[in-house]
């Protein structure tokens, strides 16, 4: 690289940070290992999995052109060693573990004319509770990303310091383009795959997904796989699982409680609660001054084989439904009810994560139309969200402010602008040369990013101050006769009525 090219790299710190983080969390050896473990009976030919990931990453990060134009540009530049049709074929068949139907042995890189999946666009099987490459990519890459995550986090109440807190919820992949022949004649909303996403509440990272090819699948059928995936990648602290009322189910609670973990879902009325009359009801107020009550009892009838003894916390809101939580954290002194209510309110972070991935990282524009393609793109969008979340953490650390005060959307927009300039001025070989420096270990990457982003600040990244609740809208008045003049209205010489029928009266 000459002096000009190095100066370009120095002037684009956000692009440098994003590319270096992606280089750290998705090196070729890790990607090859992910493919070997999750590929099923698929295999690669000309187009290798790391090359495939690189092309998809460039397409999603630099959004000035359509995905099709990006693929053609990658083919022209030599980063796509095969034809564009082969890339679409590979995306269409990103493997999901097939346990209901026998899989066809198909090449993962080149579509064949005799392959039924290529001709009709159907998935080769149905995935239920299975692992997939998309899940492996997000999980493995995020585990490496957490190694270099900065100290700027959104802490939970101190009483939960001995727990690793995760929120989880289901997400349908919408906005599927009707490109497949079978879809073109249909009217109505078409769903892609179904995900159950697990987010780490302190860092805000999406740490795991469990995928189902059927977008209409139940969230509960994916809980066991997602929880097991997180348990395999996290050790040390027990975990606290925070979920909505859908997951307050006698079938799911034992899954959440296994391995010395704990649960904090919202209560649903179909799971009957039987209060322990021997323990008195306690009262208090939360951090916002809203009153709550807490009592103890059993979820499920006496004869139910999975009956659980729990603590129930009820937040009594004015002019709104009460929030009722159940948990196996029975000690009210060690885990105050106000802290658990505050933690549950942070469950909304995963809803904000879904909105951010859909709108900011453009999951509304899907490249492929098969379930496998939609799941893979969604997983990659969650990974990009994690990368930007990490960059935001370093910026917040340098600015000594809370990460939540920095807009992810505005930060990502500036990063995309820098990445576009990066790709215009630097070739792939020059980028590889720049990233191929000695910055490889966890400590080196963290030190490099802290130095690189220390002076990278833009005041426009700060979120706007939340507006106060609007005042009550005044009652609409209708001019008698349907018209008047400003002069008469200023002097009170006009006649009005609250009845629209009087306008022409």
Outline the fold blueprint.
Layout: H1 3-10, H2 13-25, H3 28-38, H4 49-61, H5 67-77, H6 84-92, H7 116-120, H8 133-147, E1 164-172, E2 194-200, E3 205-212, H9 223-233, E4 239-243, H10 253-257, E5 262-265, E6 273-275, E7 282-285, E8 291-299, E9 308-315, E10 323-327, H11 337-345, H12 348-359, H13 371-399, H14 408-425, H15 428-435, H16 442-453, E11 478-479, H17 486-490, E12 496-497
Parallel strand pairs: 1-4, 4-5
Antiparallel strand pairs: 1-2, 2-3, 6-8, 7-8, 8-9, 9-10, 11-12
Helix pairs in contact: 2-8, 2-14, 2-16, 3-8, 4-5, 4-13, 8-13, 12-13
Share of helix, binned: 25-40%
The span between the termini is: 81 Å
> In order across it, which strands form the biggest sheet?
3-2-1-4-5
What is the averaged pLDDT score? Answer: 86
In CATH terms, the superfamily of the largest domain is Transposase Inhibitor Protein From Tn5, Chain A, domain 1
Verbal overview:
With 505 residues, the protein is α+β, with helices and mostly antiparallel strands. It has three domains: 3-125 and 371-461, no CATH class; 133-353, Alpha-Beta Complex (Transposase Inhibitor Protein From Tn5, Chain A, domain 1); 470-505, no CATH class. Helix content is 38%, strand content 13%. Residues 97-131 have low confidence and may be disordered.
